Amino acid sequence: MDNLDLAERAGLPDALRVLLEEYPRDGWETDPGFDGLIRFWLDRHLMFRRLMSELRSGTEALLDRKLDAARYAAMTARYGGMFVNGLHEHHTIEDTYYFPKLVTKDARIERGFTILDKDHHDIDAFLASFVERANEVISISDNREKLQTTAGKFRDELSKLEQLLDRHLIDEEELIVPVILKFGAADLG
User: Fold this and answer.
1) 10: buried, middle or exposed (CB in 10 Å: 19+, 13-18, 0-12)?
2) Residue 115's closest CA among 11, 37, 21, 42?
3) Which of 40, 66, 113, 165 could cross-link with 103 by S-S, CB 3.0 to 4.6 Å?
């Protein structure tokens, strides 16, 4: 059996990708059911990816000494807060509202929602570490040499989190978007 832990998997098993075969990613935007909820939901995922990218590029600029430490601390606080708060809110809504409704649509993919829910808990553990590292770089922004070393560790933390988040978002999109395209979003709000 494949290891389906977020940190280990390369994607969802084929058995959970049955609707993706029927509704492949490259046809989503031309599907008549694409607008509304799907577009909003994918835009949220894009926002999380962009925030991670901004944090990564800002950290790289700091490490290359192309960004002032005070601006870096402000950017990390702003984007980090937006990222963590937004992701917690997003996952809470999915776990309490959308997943319970979507899981009933097609029994073949029920296990996928269990995996995605577990992902949310796994990501929470990485978010806690992310917050610790972010707070650390913010708190020492007045000591450039110490900040350089600590920002290097933060960059490593960002890289790990970014990879896990991307894996989760891709799997979530490839499970959920086909469900909504097939069954509609009328009962999803």
Assistant:
1) exposed
2) 11
3) 113
Give the integer Cα–Cα distance in Å for 35 and 22: 18
Residues in the chain: 189
The 10s digit of each residue's pLDDT in 81-120 is: 999 999 999 999 999 999 999 999 999 999 999 999 999 9
The model's pTM: 0.93
Task: Look at residues 108, 118, 92 and name the one whose alpha carbon lies nearest to residue 175.
Answer: 108
Contact 120, 95 (CB under 8 A): yes
Helices (H), the chain: 18-22, 37-63, 69-93, 99-102, 110-139, 144-183
Please state, as a whole number, how many other Cβ atoms lie within 10 Å of the Cβ of residue 19: 23
Q: Which tokens hold the place of 146?
A: 């110490």
